[in-house]
């Protein structure tokens, strides 16, 4: 009886360990995605040598970077955790049986065979890598010379010089759905080009103080640049932005600042 039950107990213990493995695997994946989104600007500032006082905006690049980084990290983290659990708990054979082609059953979204599914995974990883690399450069860098930026999938960095900036528009887009969404925008217009420095609330969006710092720098370099506010703090707009953490506080702060600058310009 002892020898009959021992393999069963061992198998059960490995299943329990594997469940723990899955919990750790899923938990760290969420953490990695949030980490990449939160630290994107800091990472880019180091890569591009952004000095103190210089600014960087990347509301969209941040999300592409974190999402594709998440996809790339899926197989890497699996291999790392598998090696750790195999070393600590002797799970080599258990993982080998799970990963074996013979035991592969596919799933609801399977293409019908192990080879096809693996080929699809490889294609997705390569695509994620391409987007990940381009997202590193998909940002707006503000320096003494002007505003550096590049379009996605472009290898050429464009420079908008300060004197070519025509206007700076503060906008608020309200989405019409079951739950109203609000998207604040801070758009630079120059020589037919438009760059949005603030594309929505949430992680990756710039601080209001950074937008104000950019405006101060713009007016110092180009006093003729116009500041525009294209919405009102109406009840509908306020209701929409209150759905976001500190949304009303941020919008009101920048709104008041722009109004103050407009009045000062008219007085002069």
What are the key terms here?
alpha+beta, 4-stranded antiparallel sheet, 57% helix, elongated, disordered N terminus
Structure at a glance:
The chain has 7 helices and 8 strands. By secondary structure, it is α+β, with helices and mostly antiparallel strands. Helix 1 packs antiparallel against helix 2 (about 60-90) and helix 2 packs across helix 4 (about 115-135).
Tally of DSSP β-strands? 8
- The share of residues in helices is 55-70%
N-C termini distance: 97 Å
Please describe the biggest sheet, giving its number of strands, its sense, and whether it closes into a barrel.
Answer: 4 strands, antiparallel
By secondary-structure content and strand pairing, the structural class works out as: alpha+beta
- How are helices and strands ordered from N to C? HEHHHEEEEEEHEHH
Shape: elongated
Radius of gyration: 26 Å
Count of individual helical segments? 7
Question: Can you offer a commentary on this structure?
Answer:
The protein has helices spanning 2-48, 59-89, 92-99, 114-137, 208-221, 235-241, 247-267, and strands spanning 55-57, 140-143, 146-149, 158-160, 165-175, 181-190, 193-196, 226-229. It is α+β, with helices and mostly antiparallel strands and 268 residues long. It starts with a helix and ends with a helix. Residues 1-10 have low confidence and may be disordered.
Write the layout of secondary structure elements.
Blueprint (H helix, E strand, L loop, with lengths): L1 H47 L6 E3 L1 H31 L2 H8 L14 H24 L2 E4 L2 E4 L8 E3 L4 E11 L5 E10 L2 E4 L11 H14 L4 E4 L5 H7 L5 H21 L1
Parallel strand pairs: 5-8
Antiparallel strand pairs: 1-2, 2-3, 3-4, 5-6, 6-7
Helix pairs in contact: 1-2, 2-4
């Amino acid at each position: 009886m002892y020898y009959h039950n021992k393999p069963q107990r061992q198998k059960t213990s490995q299943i329990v360990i594997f469940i723990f493995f899955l919990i750790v695997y899923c938990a760290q994946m969420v953490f990695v995605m949030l980490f990449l989104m939160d630290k994107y600007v800091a990472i880019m500032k180091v890569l591009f040598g952004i000095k103190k006082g210089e600014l960087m905006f990347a509301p969209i690049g941040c999300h592409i970077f974190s999402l594709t980084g998440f996809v790339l990290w899926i197989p890497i983290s699996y291999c790392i955790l598998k090696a750790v659990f195999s070393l600590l708990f002797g799970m080599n054979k258990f993982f080998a049986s799970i990963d074996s082609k013979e035991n592969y059953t596919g799933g609801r979204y399977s293409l019908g065979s192990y080879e096809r599914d693996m080929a699809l995974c490889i294609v997705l990883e390569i695509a994620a890598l391409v987007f990940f690399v381009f997202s590193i450069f998909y940002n707006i860098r503000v320096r003494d010379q002007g505003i550096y930026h590049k379009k996605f999938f472009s290898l050429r960095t464009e420079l908008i010089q300060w004197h070519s900036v025509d206007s700076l528009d503060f906008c608020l887009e309200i989405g019409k759905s079951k739950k109203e969404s609000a998207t604040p925008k801070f758009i630079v217009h120059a020589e037919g080009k438009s760059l949005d420095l603030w594309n929505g609330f949430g992680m990756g969006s710039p601080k209001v103080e950074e937008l104000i710092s950019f405006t101060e720098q713009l007016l110092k370099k180009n006093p003729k640049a116009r500041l525009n506010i294209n919405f009102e703090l109406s009840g509908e707009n306020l209701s929409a932005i209150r759905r976001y953490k500190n949304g009303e506080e941020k919008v009101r702060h920048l709104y008041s600042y722009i109004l103050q600058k407009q009045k000062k310009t008219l007085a002069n």
